[in-house]
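Build the 3D complex.
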Amino acid sequence: MNLSRSQTEPVNGMVCRRSEASTAGSFCQNCVVRTRAFCAVLDDDALARLDQSHTIVNLDSEDGLFMEGDDATSFFTVLSGALRLSKLLPDGRRQITGFVLPGEFVGLSAGDTYVDNAEALTEASLCRFTVSDLKRIGQDNPEMDSQMLAMTNNTLTQARDHMLLLGRMKAPEKIASFLTSLLDRASAADQPTDPLALPMSRADIADYLGLTIETVSRTFTRLKADKIIALPEHNRVSVNNMEALVQLAEG
Amino acid sequence: MNLSRSQTEPVNGMVCRRSEASTAGSFCQNCVVRTRAFCAVLDDDALARLDQSHTIVNLDSEDGLFMEGDDATSFFTVLSGALRLSKLLPDGRRQITGFVLPGEFVGLSAGDTYVDNAEALTEASLCRFTVSDLKRIGQDNPEMDSQMLAMTNNTLTQARDHMLLLGRMKAPEKIASFLTSLLDRASAADQPTDPLALPMSRADIADYLGLTIETVSRTFTRLKADKIIALPEHNRVSVNNMEALVQLAEG
DNA sequence: CGTTAGCTTGATTTTCATCAATACTCGTGG
DNA sequence: CCACGAGTATTGATGAAAATCAAGCTAACG
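Done.
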């Protein structure tokens, strides 16, 4: 498909092989996330303008996209793969604040710098716009803001659910809750649920759930001992007792 | 296990002394939060329409406004006072997901029911709209969605900061961080910062920070023993050593 | 194969929750 | 005005959950 010049560029000290290619032609109409992304509500005219101003970005697993504090000049829609968003304390403690999946966007900032770090969890491709282009297009297409508001509101709802998990759940509940939400997403995206793929490392899971890797590991083995799940591989889970898992996940 | 944190009132069925009055005349132009609320961007025409469709709601401290699962038919802007948003686990564990201050709004839901509980932290007055009125007005005033997007984005940023606190900070860091953010807000709102008022109970602080009331209390006394703060009253704090407090708050 | 990064398991310590008692605050009625 | 009582906050003793420290695994890759 589209060939791109691949380059290794340090982004703020972060080494990432990130390839970019400007696109010719009318990709937007045939975009894989056409029906789900913020641009789903745009008419053909606006889509044509988007086609002018977007760029495709390809990331390898673990590549950084942007960092907290960088100038927020770009805005991205995820086409494929997944990103993680994280925040750090000065001494290195990390909290993953969310995962970004195909159709969702990242990089919309309240101020003029990004407020978190975005990195690729897997290989990923993204559709990139400059914030100024986006604003321009948005002004002529008010339904875009309304769509983005709805999507942001969804993200906020998830964030609040996650606060309940972080502040009030115990380790087994956190893990169970994590697994059920992965299961939901996988089945929503027509991906296999048995075994379920865990696309992220134990460290990522730990930093997402507010635990250590040791506790994550121990909790998995405990759930396994309790016959609630099985771990055919480190990165695959299959659920034996869904009742019990859901029970735990609810708190 | 204590199931009920607010023993005073049966919350189910929303027992609350809540007074409503439909408004005559053109309040919107003179509204106390005119320059800060989502309606700040509206023109006179739209304001006139808002005047038609809004209602004032007055809440006493601890009154409930809505509960998780209720039909999300109304939308509110806080005029004065403060609300808390919370989520519950089935066994009663509670997480406060945020506080809502004058100028901010509550009740915008991704789906058709509310996703959290909203209660008055202090006496409060709110401006109420039906969601359908709001949508109608929004369709003719696209800048409204854009303003609401910006405000929601701000809230999302706060939510993510709070996830870092909940998942990765220790009790003294949580308390210090809580105090510095209260100080910031108080000074932004031209309210006294020394002593700083704590408008919420220990239970609210605990449920906001993911701690127990005992740990909150002990942490306050420890900060006091370390001469970082003083507690002239239970609900007032004054900071003796701002350096140290900020140091702690940063992690 | 050997090396390494990631994962698991075990022993110990730390932090915070829980349980329990005591003190403070404020409103009410004697 | 004081005494009482309910609600709220503090303090203390103990326990449990999870973090930390420290080896061992396991699997992927040269």
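Residues 1-15 of chain B have pLDDT under 50 and may be disordered.
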